[in-house]
Design brief:
This protein has no helices and six strands. By secondary structure, the chain is mainly beta. The chain has one domain. A three-stranded antiparallel β-sheet has the order 4-1-6, with no helix packed on it. The chain has a three-stranded antiparallel β-sheet with strand order 3-2-5, with no helix packed on it.
Length: 108
């Protein structure tokens, strides 16, 4: 996983139309074959974007080679048109964890 231990991974699912009931976007962290973190973002009536996020600082990571997996779960098997799906990594705020680790020089 090419992210720092305090970064945030966000998954966004953009639909071409309204989300059907039972549609989820999921983000999962895996260590080997074991799931160490799992979170979903539900569809709310009238929405066309589903979002879920993983704060890596909240996940036990010591000595683990982690993989991230994102997918769509359509529980009701209703028709859905996906416009796009994106996964992005937001840099963590080192000042937020300044009591536990060194704040890099040159940080604004």
């Amino acid at each position: 996983l090419p992210a720092a231990h305090n970064d945030r991974i966000e998954v966004a699912l953009h639909l071409a139309g309204e989300a059907p009931e039972g549609l989820l976007v999921a983000g999962e962290l895996l260590a080997g074959d074991s799931s160490v973190f799992y979170r979903t973002g539900d569809a709310f009536p009238g929405t066309d974007v589903l979002i879920t996020a993983v704060e890596l600082a909240t996940v036990e990571q010591r000595g683990r080679d982690l993989r991230f997996r994102a997918y769509v779960w359509n529980r009701e098997l209703a028709p859905v048109r996906v416009a796009r799906m994106s996964v992005r990594v937001e840099a963590g705020n080192p000042v937020q964890y300044g009591l536990f680790e060194r704040v890099p020089t040159g940080f604004p």
